[in-house]
Design goal:
By secondary structure, the chain is α+β, with helices and mostly antiparallel strands. It is built from 12 helices and 44 strands.
Length: 758
C-alpha cells in the first residue's frame, strides 16, 4: 500500500510538472501566425540611419541614403557648412524610371539599389531590374550601361587556384620585350620577333609559371618554377535539374587537409646577359603558399610572402635582383597558428626602407615597425586590446589611422573604435570613444570622416568628425526605432558572464518574444557559430540577425548567442583555445553564459536547452549533443563540416594543424557519432560545394550503425545554407516539438520567412 501511495505521488508530481509546462506552452497555430506576421511587421521600421556613404570630393560633399517616414531619401551634405539638400529630384527621377519600367513608380519607393554618384555629383549609377543604369541629374535622362562596362566575376569555383599555365604574354615596362612560356620554359621576344629562351629545365612535371613579373627598369624578370599537385575532386549529384529529366553529375576541385599542394621555386632572370640566377629555396620548404613576386620600385630586389604548411611559420622574403641572395625581412614563428587569413597586415614604407607589420607576439594583435634589414625598430601599438585594421598610412606625416577594439575600458571589447598614432608609437589620438560599434568613411585626403555607431540596444547615430582630432563637426542624423518598438519587438539584451576560467568576460545577447511574460518558464535556444576566423555576435542595431532569431523567439523561446573562447578578436590566449581542438567550440564558456543568465532570470529553463547552427555552426551544434549532452538536449545542424578531414584545406589546417594528427579524429562528429544523446535534426543541401555533403552522410552512416534515433532533411538542388524556407519550418517545428512539448501545427499558409542567403 505504501509503495502504491509513493507511486501515485510521483505520478501526480509528473502530471503537475507537465501541466505547468503545457499551461504556458506556446508553439500553437496562433504563435506560428504571429511569428510569421512578425517578420513583415519588423521591416522598414528603423528611420534616420543612413548608409551607402560616398564622398564627392570634387564638390566637398558627401552622399547617403536613408529610410524616413515617407520612404527612402537620398541626401547630399556640404562638408564645410554642413547644409543638406536632396541629392536629386526624386519625383523627376520617378517619372523617368516609370517611363522606362512602363509602370507607375513613386518618388520615395524607388525599386533601385547600389546608388553611386560620380565625384562632381552630375550623375549617378544604380541597379534596377538586374541591370546597371546611369542617370544624368541635369537632363533627367536614364541610360543603360553596356554589360561590357560592368564588373564581372570570373564565374569560377571558389576552391580553384589561379591558372599558371595559360597563354599569357607580359610586356616589359619599357615595351621592348614580351615574356611568355613555351614548352614549359621562359622565353622573351623583342621587336625583331626573335624568340630567346631564358630557362631550359622546365617540364610538364615542373614548369615555369606564366605569371611573370618584370622589374620596373625592365632589366630583370622573376617568376616561379612550379611542381604541381593533383586535383582532389568531390562529386555532387543534381537530382532534380530544371534543364533535363535525368540527374546531372557535377564535380569540384576541392583540396582537403593533407592533400598535396603546388611547390614554388622563385626564379630570377637577367635580360641583358640572358642568364638565370639561382635563388636559394632552403628557407621556403613545405609551402602552403607563396604570394606574388613584387619588385621594389628601384628594381634592386623583389619580395614575396611565404606561408609554411601548418601556418606556424610566416615570413616576408626579399630576393636581391642582381645576385639572387635571399633575406628574411620578417619572420613569424608561433607554437599554435599564425592567423594569416584574418590578422595579417603589411605596408612597405618608402619602397621597403621600412615595413609596418602586424603580429600577436606579445599576446595581442599589434603593429610593429621594421627597418630594411628586418630588424624591429619599435612596437607601434601596445596594450591589452586588439588592433583590428589599418585604415591609412601617411608616409609624409609618419602617422597611421587604425581600427581597434578593447582599448576603451568598461565598453564591449568587440566594439570598433578609431585611432591615430605616430610610427614611433607616440601621439595616440582617440578619434572615437562613444559607447557603440563604429564605422568610418573618410574623404580622400583623410581630413574628415563620417562616423556611424550603434549597439544592438541603441539605434545608429551619424556624425561628421575631424580626422586629425576626432572632434565632432556636425551631428547629422539620430536613428529612430519607435515604429519598430510599437510592433512589440523587444531590443536584445547585451549580457556578459564569466567564462570557464572564472575571470574572462564572455559577451553575448539575449532575445525575448514580443509577448514575453516573466511568470512563464521558457526553453532556451542558442544560435552558434564558433569559427576561429572571427567573432559573431551582432554589434550593430538591426531588426533581426542571421538565423531569424526574433522570429524564432516568437514561438515561445528565449534565444541567446555568445562568443566563447576559441573565436577571434580578443587576446591570442583566448583565440588559441581552438588550436587542434575545434570540438571545444567554446562550450565551457557558453554553458557558463547560459547558466549565469538563468541564475539572473529564473524564467530561463536550463533543463530545456536547444542549439542550432550552420556550416562550422552545424559541426558545433551536433557536437553539443555528442560532447555536452548533460546540458544540450535538442540540436538542429545544417550544412555541417562534421569531420575536419573532409572539409576545405585552408580553414581546417589553419586551426587543426598539419600534418593530420589524432586531434582530427578527437574533434570528429563522425568518429564520435555513437555518443549521441538527445534529439537531432540534420539538414543538408545536395549541391553544397562549400562543405562536402559526404561529411553529413558519413555522420548518418555512423548513427545508423549505432542504432541512434535522429531526423534528416535532404533538400534537392540546394547549396550551402540553413535549409531555405522549408528548412526554417522544419527547424522551428523540431524545437517546438522537443523543447516545448507541443506537436507543431499544420503549415497550411503560404510562408514568407526571410532566411539570409549563405
Amino acid at each position: 500500500m505504501l509503495r502504491n501511495r509513493t507511486f501515485y505521488k510521483s505520478l501526480l508530481a509528473v502530471a503537475l510538472l507537465q501541466l505547468n509546462i503545457t499551461a504556458f506552452a506556446q508553439g500553437k497555430i496562433e504563435d506560428y501566425k504571429r511569428a510569421e506576421a512578425f517578420n513583415a511587421s519588423m521591416q522598414n521600421k528603423i528611420y534616420y540611419s543612413p548608409n551607402g556613404f560616398k564622398w564627392l570630393d570634387g564638390k566637398k560633399e558627401f552622399f547617403y541614403s536613408m529610410l524616413t517616414e515617407r520612404g527612402t531619401e537620398y541626401t547630399l551634405v556640404n562638408s564645410n557648412n554642413f547644409t543638406k539638400r536632396p541629392a536629386f529630384d526624386q519625383q523627376q527621377f520617378a517619372v523617368a524610371l516609370s517611363a522606362l519600367a512602363k509602370k507607375e513608380i513613386t518618388a520615395y519607393k524607388l525599386p533601385i539599389y547600389g546608388v553611386t554618384f560620380n565625384d562632381d555629383g552630375t550623375n549617378f549609377r544604380f541597379n534596377y531590374d538586374n541591370r546597371l543604369w546611369a542617370y544624368d541629374v541635369s537632363s533627367a535622362k536614364i541610360s543603360e550601361i553596356s554589360n561590357s562596362n560592368q564588373q564581372r566575376t570570373n564565374g569560377g569555383y571558389w576552391g580553384d587556384r589561379p591558372a599558371d599555365q595559360n597563354d599569357r604574354r607580359t610586356k616589359s615596362p619599357d615595351g621592348k620585350w614580351t615574356a611568355f612560356i613555351k614548352n614549359y620554359n621562359v622565353f622573351i621576344v623583342g621587336d625583331d620577333n626573335k624568340e630567346q629562351q631564358l630557362s631550359f629545365d622546365g617540364s610538364e612535371g615542373e614548369y615555369y609559371s606564366s605569371s611573370v613579373s618584370w622589374s620596373p627598369d625592365a632589366k630583370k624578370l622573376a617568376t616561379n618554377k612550379v611542381r604541381p599537385n593533383k586535383p582532389h575532386l568531390i562529386y555532387l549529384i543534381e537530382s532534380s535539374p530544371t534543364t533535363q529529366l535525368q540527374p546531372i553529375l557535377q564535380s569540384r576541385n576541392y583540396l582537403k587537409p593533407g592533400d598535396a599542394l603546388p611547390q614554388m621555386q622563385p626564379s630570377l632572370f637577367l635580360i641583358d646577359s640572358k642568364k638565370q640566377v639561382p635563388v636559394d629555396a632552403s628557407k621556403i620548404q613545405s609551402q602552403y603558399s607563396l604570394s606574388r613576386l613584387d619588385w621594389r620600385k628601384d628594381s634592386r630586389a623583389f619580395t614575396f610572402e611565404y606561408n609554411q604548411r601548418g601556418h606556424q611559420k610566416y615570413s616576408i622574403v626579399e630576393v636581391n635582383g642582381t645576385n639572387g641572395s635571399v633575406k628574411e625581412l620578417v619572420n613569424e614563428e608561433v607554437k599554435t597558428f599564425f592567423s594569416y587569413s584574418g590578422k595579417k597586415y603589411r605596408y612597405d614604407v618608402n619602397d621597403g626602407k621600412e615595413i609596418i607589420w602586424s603580429s600577436e607576439r606579445d599576446g595581442w594583435n599589434h603593429l610593429y615597425l621594421y627597418d630594411a634589414n628586418g630588424k624591429v625598430k619599435n612596437q607601434i601599438t601596445k596594450g591589452d586590446w586588439v588592433m583590428r585594421n589599418v585604415v591609412k598610412v601617411d608616409e609624409q606625416d609618419r602617422t597611421i589611422i587604425f581600427e581597434a577594439s578593447g582599448m576603451e575600458k568598461n565598453l564591449d571589447p568587440y566594439f570598433i573604435q578609431y585611432y591615430k598614432i605616430n610610427f614611433n608609437g607616440s601621439g595616440l589620438v582617440k578619434l572615437t570613444t562613444e559607447n557603440g560599434n563604429h564605422q568610418a568613411t573618410f574623404n580622400s585626403d583623410y581630413s574628415k570622416f563620417i562616423d556611424i555607431y550603434s549597439r544592438i540596444d541603441a539605434p545608429q547615430k551619424t556624425l561628421l568628425r575631424d580626422a586629425k582630432t576626432g572632434k565632432i563637426l556636425k551631428e547629422l542624423e539620430n536613428g529612430n526605432a519607435d515604429e519598430l518598438l510599437k510592433t512589440g519587438w523587444k531590443m536584445p539584451e547585451v549580457f556578459t558572464a564569466k567564462g570557464r576560467d572564472g575571470k574572462t568576460d564572455i559577451w553575448g545577447m539575449i532575445i525575448r518574444p514580443s509577448n514575453f511574460d516573466p511568470a512563464k518558464k521558457y526553453p532556451v535556444i542558442e544560435y552558434i557559430y564558433a569559427g576561429p576566423h572571427d567573432s559573431f555576435v551582432p554589434k550593430n542595431f538591426a531588426n533581426d540577425s542571421r538565423g531569424s532569431l526574433h522570429e524564432l523567439a516568437e514561438l515561445g523561446f528565449i534565444v541567446v548567442q555568445c562568443d566563447g573562447m576559441g573565436t577571434s578578436n580578443r587576446s591570442k590566449a583566448f583565440h588559441d583555445v581552438a588550436w587542434k581542438n575545434l570540438k571545444d567550440g567554446g562550450f565551457p564558456d557558453r554553458i557558463e553564459f547560459i547558466k549565469a543568465a538563468a541564475k539572473k532570470y529564473s524564467y530561463m529553463d536550463t533543463e530545456r536547452v536547444g542549439i542550432f547552427g550552420n556550416s562550422a555552426g552545424g559541426q558545433s551544434s551536433l557536437g553539443a549533443l555528442l560532447f555536452h549532452p548533460e546540458f544540450y538536449k535538442v540540436a538542429v545542424s545544417s550544412s555541417g563540416c562534421h569531420d575536419n578531414r573532409m572539409d576545405k584545406m585552408w580553414w581546417n589546417e589553419q586551426w587543426m594543424g598539419y600534418p593530420i594528427g589524432p586531434e582530427y579524429a578527437a574533434s570528429s562528429n563522425v568518429d564520435n557519432a555513437h555518443k549521441l544523446e538527445g534529439k537531432l535534426l540534420l539538414i543538408l543541401g545536395e549541391l553544397d560545394d562549400n562543405v562536402d555533403p559526404a561529411s553529413t552522410m558519413q555522420v548518418i552512416n555512423k548513427l545508423v550503425k549505432a542504432n541512434k534515433n535522429f531526423d534528416f532533411l535532404f533538400v534537392p538542388g540546394m547549396g550551402h545554407s540553413l535549409g531555405g524556407d522549408y528548412g526554417e519550418r522544419k527547424r522551428r517545428d523540431f524545437f517546438v516539438k522537443h523543447l516545448i512539448g507541443v506537436d507543431p501545427p499544420e503549415w497550411t499558409w503560404k510562408t514568407s520567412v526571410a532566411v539570409p542567403k549563405p
